[in-house]
Amino acid sequence: MSEIKRVNLPYQTSLLSFFSAVRDLPYPALLDSNHEHFSDTQYDILVANPLARIRPSQDTPSSDLITWRDTPIYELQSTRNPMNLLNELMTLICQEPWAKSAPKELPFTGGLLGYYGYESGHFVEKLPDTVEHDIQLASLDMGLYAWAVISSHQRKTTQLVLTPWCSNEETEGLVKRFTSAKPDNLKDFTLKMPFTSNMTEGEYSEKFAAVQKYIQSGDCYQVNLAQRFSSTYQGDTFTAYQALRDVCPTPFSAYLEVSPKQSLLSHSPERFLLCDKGRVESKPIKGTIARGATPEEDKANADWLIASEKNRSENLMIVDLLRNDLGRTCLTGSIKVPKLFALESYANVHHLVSTVEGAIDQADQAIRVFHQSFPGGSITGAPKIRSMEIIDELEPHQRSAYCGSIAYFSSNGQMDSSISIRTLVAEHGNLHCWAGGGLVADSKCQEEYQETFTKVGKLTHTLEHVFLK
To answer: The pTM is what?
Structure first.
């Protein structure tokens, strides 16, 4: 096989049962659009068993071989900066003859998929690192995948998409798995204690005051201050993911099994960057209010958010930051803002969302746009570097996957990524989730503190109600 091959499978409105069919393979990952709840979402993507995984290494720089069926296919001059290695790898992949002819209508035709933790920003900028690192999860972990299952909800199709790296035997084995896949019986999951924060209300107030002092002195305009909520668990986190998926559907949900005892459960509503046939799009969220208890209260809350000068100002700061970030790599004159302050509504909150667009002209450039813009401004602040320095000073623990990104970079030049908010990290029996908000000059401490509980409450309360024993 010297080109992309497609095998039609029965159409799946979700890929949950297909994911269960490959959980015995290494590093399975599901990008889950919750199409049943968001009719304009287009794709679900499932991968497993990568040819290679790219993670940070403390080893002496050396030459890394990526092999297929015991045959070297790429030799990379690895460094301690994995982003440079990923740039090099995507350039080589996009130069493959079969990649150049890969169908552009598919979102993923083999390539890289995985997560970037917030601390991956240290590979982009020189930043302090004084927080406690108590989560043993790599700051970045990307897999090189030779095949994917893709459901296109607009076309009502599900296909197994295979690169030339897949043999006929592998293809037959995968087709057999998916044609015989059945809904999996949910395995046990137990939450062992209620979630607790890594800061008291008083400590949050002190950190809020510190941010205000920085803003008043002209150090920054906005800082995203977050608190972490932690519990312990036992059992299958995929069961927990499915329960949260039902009560808190979002269009950028994802479940990644990093290892048998490490997984990411993401229920993000926010896109970071999309690259579609050379068009780059970002949709930053900034501005949040809880849903109302009645239709009248709900509408009043939404109307208040749309009219809020404070929230519009916060949103505009991040739009300007993103315009600058995209300007590093996008074509001159291509950056536009077609939507400002649009209302998007989810199970627990209303958000203000803007759209920033640009354009690129090279297939492998998508990953460079991503790296030069990472992490997203909506979860750091403005200016970005100073805000990240203040976050390091004030937050006691690493953010890990939170406020990073779950992303894919396809051999056909396509790319999509989320901001991994509303995201839980399950790691060796510990379960963590985070919530934060952008603090500006006219923020009020009690309102911002309560907003963090509003954002994460649907996740923590569901797990405590359903699984706490």
So the answer is: 0.94
